[in-house]
Design a protein that fits this description.
Number of helices of chain A: 13
Structural class of chain A: alpha/beta
CATH class of chain B: Alpha Beta
Number of strands of chain B: 14
Order of helices and strands of chain A: HHEHEHEHEHEHEEEEHEHEEHHHH
Helix content of chain B: 10-25%
Shape of chain A: globular
Number of domains of chain B: 1
Number of domains of chain A: 1
Oligomer: heterodimer
Number of strands of chain A: 12
Number of helices of chain B: 8
Distance between the termini of chain B: 18 Å
Largest interface: A-B, 70 and 61 residues
Largest sheet of chain B: 8 strands, mixed
CATH class of chain A: Alpha Beta
CATH topology of chain B: Glutaconate Coenzyme A-transferase
CATH superfamily of chain A: Glutaconate Coenzyme A-transferase
CATH superfamily of chain B: Glutaconate Coenzyme A-transferase
Radius of gyration of chain B: 18 Å
Order of helices and strands of chain B: HEHEEHEHEEEEEHEHEEEHEH
Amino acid sequence: MPVGEMNTSVGTLFMSPDVESARQFFEQKSRAPTNKLLSVSEAVTRLIHDGDYLGSGGFGTVRIATSILHEIVRQRKQHLGIAGHTTTHDFEILAAGRCFDRCDAAYIVGLEVRGLSPQARRYMESGAVQVTEWSNATLGWRYKAAAMGLPFLPVRSLLGTDTFKYSAAKEILCPFTGEKLAAVPALFPDVGIIHVHRADVYGNAQIDGISVADWDLARASKRLIITTEHLVQTDEIRQNPELTQIPYWLVDAVCHVPCGSYPGNMPYEYYSDEAHLAEWLEAEKDDTSLAEFLQKYIYGTRDFAEYLSLKGGETHLAELRALEPLHRSKEQR
Amino acid sequence: MIQPYNLMELMVCVASRQLEDGKTAVIGTGMPLAAAMLAQKTRSPNLITMFEAGSIAPQLIKLPLSVADSYTMAGGLMHSSMNEIMEACQRGIVDYTFLGGAQIDMYGNLNSTLVGTDYYKPKVRLPGSGGANDLASLCWKTLIITPHDKRRFVSKLDFLTTPGYLTGPGAREAAGLPARTGPYKVISTLALMGYHPESKRMRVESLHPGVTVDDVRANTSFEMLFADNLATTPEPTDDELRILRQEVDPQGLIIGKRTG
């Protein structure tokens, strides 16, 4: 098959795909089985610094680490880079706090069928954020390359499009077949944040339902913060080790945050709070109403538990649990 | 006697008929999903649905709000990962992808990234590719469902997010995209379209009831082709409408709330 001319991309590569420096980092990372339980506030203070590059797990409004995202805003972190991989409400929160100025964009600004976030749009259109384009698969494969300890993966999407042109991918020829491929560089985030169903204090973590890109995000991230619905004994992890997606030595902090994906959906636990997600979009209509909204729910609250109680606490959460369609059988509980 | 129906109902019914039984499909939320659910409950009970976030073959009991939410998983055969889904597409075992509205040109290329002429100063920043670039690159056939107007059916995209036939015959292969993949059908508010086998340009196959060739021309910014034996899109059957209203979308999220 004739191969057309080779094209080049113009996007900025924000993070080095150098696997040797990644190996050196991981060589030094502690393997000690210590108790890593921290408050959300402590975890963010210790592990997320201005200028860091962040990877947010889950899928935008599903199984997201909302408490960490709020705390990043509350602590007014700045100049973060973010992987816009399937980001919706997570992106909306960080855009509301104007916390980032670099973004690898695969899915940003929107909230799927709920529409576009006015504040995320304003922020992205303001020129304050440097953007490089990707797609959901290629950003996921960038995590996968990093998880594999490889500097890149060859893939067959992006090719022929402006998405490629404004990415930092490169076209290469297959050394075996001569086919044109897109090489996507490994992405090692400084910090990954992932909300899980259950974890022990050391960081052994289990996810029920789809894992999206979190298997690879957990392995690609230099530092990893886990928030968990349920804090369990290691014995419980050992009873179903096939459910463990993240072994403890990848993890730097474990935060026990019940209902931690709220207002997002947590499969098997509670459904999304669509009224509150709509309240977010409505509050973003102008700067004044957004500032009041953020003051009420984030800056003016001490922590995530206070936010949950402002939103109706256990009574309201029980309603969201009743809306959740996935339930475990008795044997699984 | 055919019951009254609205345009959304017509589009979902027409879309559902394009999905052959026993095939695999990665489905977007909204109208594509309603079409897949209707297909499963009518002529394609063994249509295998997948969602880009990782769900495989759920028993769709209600329209999900996210391609990752619990309703994409309920009753499923497997809860996997995005890589599992995208790699299946890349391997060639996924027949269809079915995506929602965006700017589209005569070769079926899509824009969901921005409105404006300067990438660095967009008038409107949109979500970007999401999984669309990958799915339309890697699945065998791409279906699009979208309202039909001049703003959406454009002669030049502001940004080519997702590949259709790019610049025409042979362009996908020259770009390195998998051979024999590409745009398949477009279901709009006016017509059902396919692509001319040689020129790879969009071509109307059937006009929806009451729609004329001039209506399509007036709402399309590029030169649309029309099939020689131009048909009228068959109306929704009573069975399709009943299943769509009672089982697929009883809340009217996609097809609208019923007043009478």
